Amino acid sequence: MNRIIEIKDFQSPELDVYARLSEVQLLRACEPKPGLFIAESPRVIERAIQAGYCPISFLAEKKELKGPAGELTEKFPDIPVYTAPQEILTQLTGFALTRGMLCAMKRKELLSPEVICADAQRIVILEDVVNPTNVGAIFRSAAALNMDAVLLTAGCSDPLYRRAARVSMGTVFQIPWTRFGKKDWPEKGMGCLAGMGFKTVSMALCEDSVSIDSPELQAEKKLAVILGTEGEGLAAGTIAGCDYTVRIPMAHQVDSLNVAAASAVAFWELGKRTK
């Protein structure tokens, strides 16, 4: 039987993770060990659990415990379940819960790029993509469109931030990912990719570029597709260090796409592999 705990005291310290700690505070909550994160909705929580993340508590609308949320919590009879009517939870969290459920979970130690990409043929590099919505959308496209792993530079938004995980529909837990160290990109990171046998592809608005449907790209056994920050795009040094530069053809004098939209186009085309 779950420990069902009716919320009566909004200041209860057990609720700090949901009501009062920022994403950064959650990230640093267990230093020097990995911190915490909040997963939202039964589907996203289930995918996190399947990926090996451990719940420490649940927060759910009372009515939701009669459906998928309740079925999920029953698998963890020793984990506390905080509950209250929707109007009270809205007051507590500041906004309505998506599908009526949150879960505080422990992070895992990040693995090295070499381990993450050991069997990969098509990977994604995100260079300082700072918007969690874009990060989540890119992960969803990467998982759906034949990418094998995602590597992030230190300046990228965290894929486990609540909004990113929600927008990704939980695919941040389905595709392997890790970060480069703060001082590892671009020089050491590029060297790491080359050492693993990847040819690098910068997605950039350069005239001197290769067509995205080039047979030469499809024939490459290993490709690393590199996407840049919102607005500015990839750094000039990153572009110069890549093996290929690819520009997506545009119509109606449109000069660029949002990075998340561009990623879907790139993954669809560059995820094809010549057998």
Automatic annotation (TrEMBL):
InterPro entries: Alpha/beta_knot_MTases, Ribosomal_eL30-like_sf, rRNA_Methyltransferase, SpoU_MeTrfase, tRNA_m1G_MTases_N. Residues 123-267 form the tRNA/rRNA methyltransferase SpoU type domain. Gene3D superfamilies: 3.40.1280.10. Keywords: Methyltransferase, Transferase. The keyword Lyase does not apply. Pfam families: SpoU_methylase (PF00588). PANTHER family: RRNA METHYLASE (PTHR43191:SF12), RRNA METHYLTRANSFERASE 3 (PTHR43191). This is tRNA G18 (Ribose-2'-O)-methylase SpoU. It comes from Blautia caecimuris. The lineage of its organism: Bacteria, Bacillati, Bacillota, Clostridia, Lachnospirales.
